[in-house]
Amino acid sequence: MDEKTFGRAFCYIEEVMNRSRGFEGEVKVKFDNGGFDIRLCNDAFKKFGGGDRAKGVAIDGSSFKILDGLSFIISSRRVGYVVADEKGVIRKKIGDMEIDTLSKQGLKDDFKEKYGDLMDSVPPKIPDSMDEVNDAIRGLEEHVMAREAMETLGEGDVVMMDGSLEGNKFLSEIIKENCNIAVERGLHLVGICKRSDLYTNKLPVLAWVKKRGDSIFAKQRWYYPLSRERRVYIAKLHPFSKFSFRIDINPMEEDVEGILNKISAFSNDVSYMGYPYPLAEIHRDVVITSEDGLYCRKVLREMALKSGFTIDEWEDIFFDYHEYLG
Questions:
Q1: Contacts made by residues 264-271, CB under 8 angstroms, sequence distance 24+
Q2: Which domain holds residue 312?
Q3: What is the mean pLDDT of residues 94-111?
């Protein structure tokens, strides 16, 4: 590749980085289910002291495409939760890895059936692809698991979901219902994003907020309200953390700083400084790795061979020529 090719790419990167360095003004932030206008400015930053004690639950899930038959996929999912306090894990529930077949032909019926089993209702929207269906089902299972976990908690405890509470058109109903359940039981439901794609007009919002926050409140905990109405914040949960995270708080909650104090009590572990350690623990417990996927493929192939099918018949369906090309 010539220098011009890299130059064009770098010009875009340079514009993004310069914009995140010096911007101040009005922007429109977009989500899957809408957006809002905000003014990014230094005056909105606030510091908070943090908390010493907290109890709660962290919920997460994982999905993996084991085999791709083009017109169908064999997919896997696993969800679970960890109950913990500021001192350590109290108990866990890790679900078994589920394996499903999703086909293009039966995609709508597959999703309607699974949604009906979990929600006892008809889905408001149907995903367009097999991968979207697999991810949407995993999301539904995570929020169903959250309902189960909430029954084990007491008033004032925190329910930490991995990811946004904004959700998407497939998850909006169950998230809304869970927000209501949490308030009724005196629980604090939050969504914490390891990464956030909040981005507007060549401005990575999370990067802008982090840079400004660290310059204003160096070596302190701080938070920034992206939307007070929607309860969407960016926060640094430990004074010496290199990272800040997008945190969505139940829109029905009022005591934002009190909730951030409780979340910060989980964020002092040196292994994950600035990130709630129960979310890190449950991520490690539920993640389906590429090694897990290879093992599942091997088992399914061996089952096919033992049933009398040949390796050529197997590869006619599943072999990807990209693998041959390297």
A1: 264/48, 264/50, 264/51, 264/221, 264/237, 264/238, 265/50, 265/51, 265/52, 265/53, 265/54, 265/86, 266/54, 266/56, 266/84, 266/86, 266/158, 266/160, 267/237, 267/238, 267/241, 268/86, 268/238
A2: 290-325
A3: 90
